[in-house]
Amino acid sequence: MTTEWPAIRIELPSWVDEVVRAHPGPLDDAAAMGLAIALARGVMERGEGGPFGAVVVDAAGNLVAPGMNRVLASGQSWAHAEMIALAIAQRQSGTHDLATAPGAPLTLVTAGEPCAMCLGAIPWSGVSRVVAGAREADIAAAGFDEGDKPAAGLESLGRRGIEVRRDVRRAEAARVLSDYAAAGGPIY
């Protein structure tokens, strides 16, 4: 007897292309963060899920992949912005190891510090840098639970040779989170 298991497919909404076009490259850290924040705000304003966005950019600042929270839209608890951006980057690059992808080294830019799950996935993705906007405290203030992270948090990535830059456009990224909480968006 053969069982047919459902395929897992996460799709980005059609409005993503418009947001990406509004942020032409090359993207430095601040510009890439602006795009990640715009994706987070787009999800929030359209009522599609949590206010989280991320992008992967190559060494020249070209966009490799956008990502935004798709947990509610997909019914998949793992569909966080960072996970989506990394998965699309891997598919676009044709490799699970982004360290060997065209345009490497690659950078993950995320509007908020990664949760425990996303933090755990970063070392295996092959990115060489992580740039974060809002801090864990900003995310917690909005009501989200980031899970049990190592005591060193983002700094733990440094032990694996992954450079970390924090607080890029933090106030703007934190504002999206506080706007979401003030609007009564679902917390999960």
TrEMBL record:
This protein's UniProt keywords: Metal-binding, Zinc
Single annotated GO MF: zinc ion binding
PROSITE patterns: CYT_DCMP_DEAMINASES_1 (PS00903), CYT_DCMP_DEAMINASES_2 (PS51747)
Gene3D superfamilies linked: Cytidine Deaminase, domain 2
Annotated GO biological process: purine nucleoside catabolic process
Pfam family, one: dCMP_cyt_deam_1
Domain CMP/dCMP-type deaminase: 27-157
Keyword Ribonucleoprotein: no
Record's protein name: tRNA(Arg) A34 adenosine deaminase TadA
Biological source species: Thiohalospira halophila DSM 15071
